[in-house]
Amino acid sequence: MQVCKVQLVALLLLLSCGMYSHGSKILVIAPFGTKSHWQFFGEIVKTLANRGHHVTSLTSLPMIRHDNVTEIDLDIDLDPIIPNTFENRGWGVSVNLLKRMPGMCAEALSRKQVQDIKIDEYDLIFIGLFVSDCFYGLLEDTQVPMITMSPNGLVSYAHELEGNIDFPSFVPMMGTTMLHPLTFTQRLLNTLANLFSHALTKYYYLPSVEKACKEAALCRPNMRSIEEIAAKSAFLFINNVQALETPVRPYVPAVIHAGGLNCRPAQPLPEDLASWIEGSGDAGAIYFSLGSFIKPKDMPEKFRQVFVKVFSTLPQRVIWKWDEASMPGLPPNVKLAKWLPQQDILGHPKVHLFITHGGLFSTLEAIYHAVPILGFPVFADQGSNMIKSTADGIAETIDWDDLSEDLLNNTIHKMLTDQKYQKTVNHRSQLMRDQPMSPRDVVVYWTEYAIRHKGAPHLQSPVKGMAWYQIYNVDVWLSLIVISLACLYLDIKILIALVRRCCYRTKTTGELKKKKE
Ligand SMILES: *[C@@H]1O[C@H](CO)[C@@H](O)[C@H](O)[C@H]1NC(C)=O
Ligand SMILES: *[C@@H]1O[C@H](CO)[C@@H](O)[C@H](O)[C@H]1NC(C)=O
Description:
Blueprint: H1 2-18, E1 25-29, H2 35-50, E2 54-59, E3 69-73, H3 92-110, H4 112-115, E4 124-128, E5 146-150, H5 156-162, H6 184-215, H7 226-230, E6 235-238, E7 255-257, H8 271-278, E8 285-289, H9 301-312, E9 317-321, E10 334-337, H10 342-346, E11 351-356, H11 360-368, E12 373-375, H12 382-392, E13 395-397, H13 405-417, H14 420-433, H15 439-452, H16 468-471, H17 474-516
Helix pairs in contact: 3-6, 9-13
């Protein structure tokens, strides 16, 4: 009986060991995410907290109220360096960010709350792939497994972190406007853009982060390179849905698709919104929001007037996310609101069109809730998101510089009358929902896997430690070409020698014949 009890206890212990990953201590480092980045990071935090893990998160956007989450607010404001996104469309914002990042990161790292953190007390560390690179200085010596989170897809630098091979021959670089299949010129440009982005990261950005960190005496003078430390990361969680990626592309096992984590079934709307949308009759409603990062009041007045004019002629009702309670010339079929439950609106059967800036989160939510998209990209990856969505047949894109009453009116009419947009987005919505595991389960599974298997070294790509010319066999191809050229050269030499000999013989025999005559 006694033996039996001991065995039972041992068995229970074993069982609980096998499942010990409940209640792990997890540290999330993402001091710089914008609101939209934090939609992704925050969903990861909430998912793990609901699962019973204890999450401490370094953030500048505290917003999660949860028993199992402790937020450390570093209170870093990105606004001063990204002033007015309408006046700084295109890549200006990104260039400014790139210049300011190293200093900002060092400043965040110097905070007492950060320096007091005892890394080795945690079971797992998440780090956000956006400006947080100097924090790798904290992680140089630790054996605690790490997971990197990318709020976008796989940016070029992330390929190297996970040892994933990038194929500029058929995968257009993130942020570019090219589509598969690429012409020769596009492949050339794509390759050059790729090289440029890698070089910028490797020879300018990361060294300047290391320099700023060392100058502030926050990183050791003889610290390993950030790239080397970052390569310890067990997995990279990306905000992509594999079934929606065009073209499909190869991934190493360490890249985990967690896209659509922000998407959830629609819930009933607040009373006033519900009755407003339901009162739109057969015409239905249009939802207009430029996301959480772009300030609506930064929109130039001439653009605002175009929207107001065109909206006033539409039979549809329009819900417009706007940061003031009213505006000049507001038509009766338009309702303004500062904050709106986006997914509950998109999920309402009477909402037929989503006018958006084309951010990744909004795009994914539109696809999930099967609403066609009219995109006005402002900056960063929004342009390329919209080009992809337009090519997929679920969207139309209007460049701010082309915006006119006629164009806006005609595009809205076309999208609401031609059923192809709705049909295509319905199909893509089905693809997005038809996955073996929900994105939440994916996050829980691979996070606990990294804890159980101590960073999962068996799943790491061998490419991580290889030089680029070895990865692509450039040295092998070059030697094959050199050998072939050498053989060709020898062949030609021999051929010439043979021909000479032959000709000489016929010549001499010919001469002999002549002499005989
Ligand atoms: C917090 O974690 C505990 C286990 O550590 C779990 O039982 C509890 O349900 C979690 N709380 C919430 C609100 O999910
Ligand atoms: C908007 O476009 C539709 C169809 O293209 C057209 O019938 C309508 O007259 C236009 N409205 C205005 C105000 O131009």
